[in-house]
Specification:
By secondary structure, the chain is an alpha+beta fold. It is built from 9 helices and 6 strands; from the N terminus they run ββαααααααβαββαβ. Helix content is 52%, strand content 10%.
């Protein structure tokens, strides 16, 4: 009896897929690419939530100023016997609201700064494959998590909120103050009578009008002086790290004069590490391999023991300190590591030596 041959094609053996290289390892845990993306997505949602909470607080402070102004003007113009100084008191109250909102705006910018980093150099890179992330975006994000600091100065926050909302509230209060003095109880017969009505207690009308002029002149000058400060990443600005952006740290774009004092310097903290070790060769090789940072060896002598030792010098950033300690501990647990801040580091992966 003939045996029928099977017509089914034999399935080809599948090639064994190479195990995916972990993106991050920690205490035996291996984080894969998909898990890394999931973690970043959850982190992005958390930062969005934080930014929204502080954005709502900004709106709340503005509402306080608007409601207080509306109530004050209703009282001032509703009764002719009410003194015009109530408008001046409300002006000071609105100024205090502006300081509160500027402080809240700095907190809002801290979370918005992180969101902007991920939008421009993480998600945009996914949507457009040829798009390459900025080489420093992950370093800046890690530094913001390790050592949080406000990305903008209080002057920029104050000037931005002043131009957007509060300057117009102050103008309404100024016009209302003049109208209150002019219209109530009746229109003045001449300018001297108008100036006399502007007095508040022992302070003469001339002084009050002069103080009002200086106050609004200060607000105007401050609003104009801070108009080109564009460190705020929560606004619609170019891609992070774009050299054409006004906030980019270039020699030609540096601010001078008063604006240089108002604009904070925003760059990663740079450090200089000294490693005193008896195993200079192995420690330096470990640093070169793990941190990809250059190492310079110098000869030294321990004055207490009288032994000759090698001193390794390495420039690094704030986010690499933990990796440096781990690398040195692997090779020489008895080594001494000294980390100090560096004013400027040029070349070798840091700021360029030559201005383009």
């Amino acid at each position: 009896m003939a045996v029928k041959s099977s017509t089914k094609a034999r399935s080809k053996p599948k090639k064994e897929e190479e195990p995916e290289e972990p993106v991050w390892t920690y205490r035996g845990y291996h984080l894969k690419t998909s898990e890394f993306v999931t973690a970043m997505v959850h982190f992005f949602r958390a930062e969005i939530q934080r930014a929204n909470v502080w954005r709502q607080r900004l709106d709340t402070t503005t509402n306080w100023a608007v409601v207080a102004t509306g109530a004050t003007l209703s009282i001032a113009f509703g009764q002719s016997s009410v003194h015009h100084s109530v408008i001046l008191l409300n002006t000071l109250l609105v100024l205090w609201f502006l300081f509160i909102e500027a402080r809240r705006y700095r907190y809002y910018e801290l979370w918005s700064y992180r969101v902007r980093l991920m939008e421009t150099d993480f998600y945009a890179a996914m949507l457009v494959p040829p798009f390459h992330p900025s080489p420093e975006w992950a370093e800046n994000l890690a530094e913001s998590l390790l050592t949080p600091s406000f990305p903008i100065s209080v002057w920029e926050a104050f000037g931005r909120r002043l131009r957007r909302n509060y300057f117009w509230i102050f103008l309404i209060l100024y016009a209302s103050w003049v109208a209150k003095i002019w219209l109530f109880p009746t229109a003045p017969l001449n300018v001297q009578q108008f100036i006399a009505r502007a007095s508040v207690g022992p302070v003469s009308g001339e002084i009050m009008i002069g103080l009002g002029f200086l106050f609004y002149l200060f607000l105007t000058v401050f609003a104009v002086a801070t108009i080109n400060m564009t460190r705020a990443t929560g606004e619609v600005l170019p891609r992070f790290g774009d050299e054409t952006a006004p906030a980019a740290p270039s020699q030609e774009g540096k601010h001078t004069g008063l604006r240089a004092l108002l604009v904070p310097r925003r760059r990663r903290r740079q450090l200089l590490a000294f490693i005193i070790t008896d195993k200079a060769e192995t420690v330096s090789n470990r640093i070169l391999t793990d941190l990809k940072r250059g190492v310079t060896s110098m000869e030294g002598k321990g004055m207490y023991t009288g032994k000759d030792r090698s001193i390794l010098m390495c420039a690094l950033t704030i986010t690499e300190v933990h990796n440096l300690k781990s690398a040195v501990a692997k090779e020489d647990p008895q080594a001494v590591v000294i980390v100090s801040p560096a004013q400027e580091v040029f070349g070798g992966g840091f700021a360029p030596l030559e201005e383009k």
